Amino acid sequence: MIYHHIALNTILPPLTYAHDTALPLGSRVLVNLRGKPQIGVVWANHVQPEIDVNKILPILKIFDHEPTLPENWRELIDFTARYYHYPIGQTVFTALPSLLKEPRPIESPESPVFYTLNDLGKQQTPPPKNHAKKLQLWQALFSGCLDMATLKKIHPKAIDLINEYKKLDWLSICTATTPSIPPSQHILNAEQTEVSNTIQSHLHEYQPFLLHGITGSGKTEVYFDVMATVLAQGKQVLFLLPEINLTPQLLARVAQRFPDVPTAVLHSQTATGARGRDYLRAMLGHAKLVIGTRLAVFTPILDLGLIVVDEEHDNSFNQDNELRYHARDLAVWRARQVACPIVLGSATPSLESWHKAQIGAYQLLTLSHRANAIAKLPEIELVDVRRMRLDNGFSPQVLNLLKQNHQNGGLSLVYLNRRGFAPALFCGDCGHTFGCPNCSAKLVLHQRARQLRCHHCDFRQPIPHACEECGNQDLTAVGQGTQRIEETLKNFLPLAKIVRVDRDSMHKKTDWAHLYDQIHAQQVDILIGTQMLAKGHDFPNLNLVVVLNADGSLFSSDFRAPERLFAELMQVSGRAGRAEKAGRVLIQTQLPEHEIFHAIRAQNFAQFATQELAQREMFGLPPFGFQAAVRADALKMSDAVDFLNEIRDVIAPMLPENVSQMGAVPMLMARLAERERAQIFIESMNRVALHRALSLWEQVLAQHRDNRIRWHIDVDCQEM
Ligand SMILES: Nc1ncnc2c1ncn2[C@@H]1O[C@H](COP(=O)(O)OP(=O)(O)OP(=O)(O)O)[C@@H](O)[C@H]1O
Ligand SMILES: [Zn+2]
């Protein structure tokens, strides 16, 4: 008998099972766990059993016709599990798409066949213009070699058309698997060229780059330029971006620039079947360009030649439940593993990456001008609203500008990162506000739906007619949400076409396409939007941005709040003035003297980063020190706090010297979905020591099982 370690979807380490031959590592198998058949992955073979061999169960089934999960992928999983102190088996199951978690054999995709029009085909009349997709498919076949997966992305009925053309003998099969890549529509400017050349002088080796390019400086064009070279060499590219930026606009840009390149798109909304297939296509090297959000960092890739992380500072690369990982950091690890360059791009880099560039661990590349030669960075002005009477959140100055801009035919964006009608409902008699019964959060008023809603746990209730404390029937909606802003502006400018863009208004994928069409047809005068609209979009006509109520987070005790606010305001400002029309940005604030606004007005990231980093260094905060949180939640705060403090005391005598652990404290958002949450911060200036301490925590936590309490470890935690 040969004994194997099998990684299973459990908190236990890989368990031992027997088979009469040695199975290849990375194979999928079926085994019994607690009497139930479960899918597992062979993690080690020829292991020495640590338990009585008579008790070792046999492997029930081997999916031996499937490709095995490759070695470098297993190394990535091992590293992830170790670094984030998470069970290996559960890490495997987070990283796999559903298709591979099913106890069924999968159909392994065959090597793709590439089609092109032959001479006879090229002599035919192309399909008429009113059959746009058919024509597009024809044009793609005319100029390149494409596989079925790529053709299907151009036209869903590609199979039928290919069969038809085959019958007519218009096609030939080509072997070329290195795609032909048409040149860009833009000629890179001098800065872009230099940056691209620098990156390209480091292909085939590990080299991290931090590309700091102001908004609209043409970072995407630089990524594409480097990608074109790597793809033309037949290597694969991993392109990661925040969920919010994975827009149809971006995918259209990719499709236009790389029409022949077999592409896999992996994000949480991709349909299960498609995601599984794309995962395998990347793993087998069929898909050359792998685009996705954070989870795509776990895609096995046969021949990785380049990684790009766009908007690398974005918080959505950090997963904050179950396996708490940072996709950007894992991407850097992967680049080192396979010795390829990685480009981290942003207009407002994370202070972690900026610091690494300052100390020379990353190479800093800069794009300091807008790519479009006539476009300039917008002017940013502050509107001091301290002593002003606001009309539903608007200063008179801002209202006037919006009116003027509408009269002059401009496009304006009103930014407010708060959806709903009003953030709170308030009783003027007794001062009561309506809170969520499950969370420490106020209920948000949604006027049209006639509901109060919790934006954290999605609790909903009808709008009450009277105060639940004193019975007063005169309740006031305080503060502004995007719906109220929309209402106010519609009353103020009844002739303007106003569109609100937030999570409540954008449900379907087609909503975005529709919005773009409307904007490009110049049918929109004013956009009202949350973060969703602030990032990455390129609306050439947009020339006025108004930010309402930017101050909220400046009172936060989260040390990352200023960094986030700076990034947010630079991003939203960066939407203005991207083409011919000069841009203007107004930020309403109660705190115009706050130092963060000096840097924002100067639009000077380096200045901001230097200030912030000096403070972080003084307090030993990341990126100077390393930090992890151990969190516990229970129905009662005292249970969570006591649990953590007890374990802390057990560990204290064993704690490595240069590690400190604080006392347990409630989290900033102390109550969430009926659970009360506490945490202990564990800090060290030495990463290895911190991880040694965390391993201790892991061991002791595992021994202290208490059904009332759930716990987790969050390494490099982003949430306070
Ligand atoms: N070399 C160039 N010549 C002319 N136009 C260009 C050039 N490079 C990029 N552009 C155009 O400039 C605009 C901004 O480019 P791009 O979207 O690549 O910038 P970005 O830095 O990724 O922007 P952001 O970070 O603000 O989302 C786009 O409309 C793009 O088509
Ligand atoms: Zn809630």
UniProtKB/TrEMBL annotation:
GO terms for molecular function: 3'-5' DNA helicase activity; ATP binding; ATP hydrolysis activity; DNA binding; zinc ion binding. GO terms for cellular component: primosome complex. It comes from the Bacteria. Residues 200-367 form the Helicase ATP-binding domain. Coiled coil: none annotated. Zn(2+) 1 binds at C427, C430, C467, C470. Residues 462-619 form the Helicase C-terminal domain. Belongs to the helicase family. PriA subfamily. This is Replication restart protein PriA. It comes from Simonsiella muelleri ATCC 29453. The lineage of its organism: Bacteria, Pseudomonadati, Pseudomonadota, Betaproteobacteria, Neisseriales.
